[in-house]
Each structure stands twice: as C-alpha cells, then as structure tokens.
Design a protein that fits this description.
The chain is of the alpha/beta class. It has helices at about 15-30, 80-90, 90-100, 110-115, 135-140, 160-175, 175-185; strands at about 1-5, 35-40, 45, 55, 60, 65-70, 105-110, 125, 140-145, 150, 155, 195.
Length: about 200
Amino acid sequence: MNIQILIYNGFDELDAIAPFEVFQLAANFGAQLQTEFVTLDGLEEVVAQHGLRVSATGRLDERADVVLIPGGGWVARAAQGAWAEAQRGVVPEVLMRFHRAGKTIAAVCTGTMLVATNGLLQGRNAITHHQAVEELREAGAHVINARVVDDGELITAGGVTSGLDLALWVVERSFGSAIAVAIEQGLEYQRRGTVWRRPDSSK
C-alpha cells in the first residue's frame, strides 16, 4: 500500500505528522506500506500553519493507493491553508480525479472541506472539525457524529488530534487489529471516540 500525504502551505502540522508517524510505525511492525509527504506543484519544502517547514519527497502521483489530505486555516479563512486551497480550486479537482481513478481519499479535520468543495461528499457520510460541521452539511454531506467516518473509499475524521484515530483505523482496516493495538501501546495513546463504518462497505 502506498499512502501519499498531500501537504500545502498552511496545513496544520498535527493533521499530517500524526498519521505519518502511525503509518511509519505500522511499517516497522510489518505492514506492507510506504508513506510519503507529497505536493501538487513540486515544492520541495512547505511551510505549515505554525511555521514548521516540511520536506516533500515528490509529487502526488498515480502510485498512491490512499491520498491523505490534512486541514488547517479553514475556520479562520487564512490566506494560506485549506480555505485558500479550496478557493484556488486545484486540490479539490485533483482529489476528484484520484477518487474517480479508484483511490481511497482520507481527510483529517478541515481537510474534509477540501474534499467536499467539488461535491465529492454530496450524499456521502462524513465528519470534520466541529466548527466546520455546518458548512459540511451545506456541502451536501450526511454528517455523522463520530470520531472517524469510514464511507468505503472516503474516510474522514473530526478535529486535529483525530488524525491519530483515522490513521490507526486505516492500519486496522488494512492490516488487522494486532498491529493497530501495538502502535497504540508504543505511542501510549488510547483511541478516542467511535469509528462509524458504512454497513455495506466491502473494504
């Protein structure tokens, strides 16, 4: 499994770095996965919301089985971040294209709003940061009050720290609960809230 975490200027650090660590630990425990930070435009370094500089290893490409999109800056309508990327329109278009190509799209916090911008979540089950829930509903999503919402090939999570829970769920869903529990123990983290899973989901 190839997981590409799509970063952009203004993304929230924890939205991306927490899942990255979970996925790296999963690989250490034997899960057959690779994880990398990528950009759309070839930027080698991205400045996150709180000033952390993060290096990308390449561009988002068709090797990705899972594309994970962090949030950041949506509620504040920041000049850089998820809101700015939604207005620019390129990220939502690319996410739609990758979804149509059969890729799994996972979103943390207001990364969900980037997924929703082009109507990809219309009629789908999803969750986002509590301050953006009404906007998610207005975008046509069916809001589920859960920490992580697994709607098959679309997986979303609530506020910032829920990226840990989303990543642990992706690991459990793909590689089994034993590895996920081992990661929890290593991080000294206990999963919070609930995972809602679409009843007819085959994944």
